[in-house]
Design goal:
The protein is an alpha+beta fold. It has nine helices and eleven strands. Helix 1 packs parallel to helix 3 and helix 2 runs antiparallel to helix 3.
């Protein structure tokens, strides 16, 4: 795991704070860029950094949108309008490729304008690299490596937050636990590579079956969970039926005879983490006992 060190030093003549590695170009960037670096170092959120950077870039070009493409995905400035012509710039620090910065602008960028933007990029490089390192470490801590879903640690945090919100604001929710039927036989007979393919495929099915306000988690093995931002049984039933239908129509899962059992429950105001989880788990147990490949509410 990478260690994130966000180190700063005081520049005696200006009182600004910059990363130690910035000293190689600190004398070559103008005062506005010093102020930009100072602002960029106030956050480790990529979207926020891009929004701050865009305010300075707008002094050079009339941009409508700004994105940054990296191994973590795509981040963009607030209210980014990406309909105009894209202009891409590769960002590197000491031979390390950070990603591509993409400007969206309705006017063509002259070589002079591109040169000014490249000079401004010097102020972005090190704060951006710090943010990337931080978010990579955060992803390792909260994401399942195989499927890319949220992991058990993230589930515990999110469940506690939702219960607290439910108590304070009377905004209830639902918890769904899922287990793949006959999954052990896939690993035993066809090998772990086939088992991994089944898990990844089922993860895609879960993501496609829920709404934008819901969250999917993998605990490990073939155990999954969904936090549903809706306290109504019909909504839970609809999502469960959607998942089982998608599993039935999936050629890969059908090939290995894999189905899904589901248990779900609605949050109550007096619930704690263990109580609501135990209740949903009881629903899952009843679905298994009823012959699998079904959903049961408790």
């Amino acid at each position: 795991m990478e260690n994130v060190h966000i180190l700063t030093q005081r520049i005696p003549t200006r009182g600004d704070y910059l990363p130690f590695s910035n000293e190689q170009f600190v004398d070559n960037i103008p005062d506005p860029a010093h102020r930009l670096v100072e602002q960029l170092q106030t956050t480790l959120q990529l979207d926020e950094q891009l929004t701050l950077f865009a305010e300075f870039a707008k002094r050079i070009i009339k941009l409508s949108g700004l994105q940054f493409h990296s191994s973590l995905g795509v981040a963009q400035m607030k209210e980014s309008d990406n309909q105009h012509t894209p202009y891409s710039f590769d960002l590197e620090v000491n031979g390390e490729h950070l990603g591509q910065l993409v400007y969206f602008c309705q006017y063509q960028l002259s070589s002079s304008i591109q040169g000014k933007l490249c000079h401004l990029h010097n102020a972005l490089l090190y704060p951006l690299r710090n943010a990337l390192m931080y978010n990579r470490v955060l992803q390792l801590a909260t994401k399942d490596a195989l499927t890319g879903l949220n992991n058990r640690s993230q589930f515990n945090d999110n469940l506690a937050q939702k219960l607290e919100r439910s108590r304070r604001h009377h905004r209830s929710f639902s918890l769904m636990l899922l287990d793949l039927d006959h999954f052990k036989a896939v690993n035993d007979i066809h090998g772990h590579k086939a088992g991994d393919e089944v898990l990844v495929e089922f993860s895609h099915i879960l993501q496609q079956s829920i709404r934008a306000t819901d969250s999917v988690y993998r605990f490990g093995g073939d155990e999954f969970a969904v936090l549903i931002d809706d306290p109504e049984f019909p909504t839970n039933k609809l999502i469960a039926e959607r998942i089982m239908a998608a599993v039935k129509n999936c050629s890969l899962l059908a090939k290995f005879g894999v189905t899904a059992s589901i248990g779900f429950t609605l949050a109550a105001s007096h619930d704690c983490e263990n109580v609501i989880f135990s209740r949903a788990d009881k629903g899952l147990y009843k679905a298994k006992a009823a012959g699998r490949n079904c959903a049961h509410a408790v």
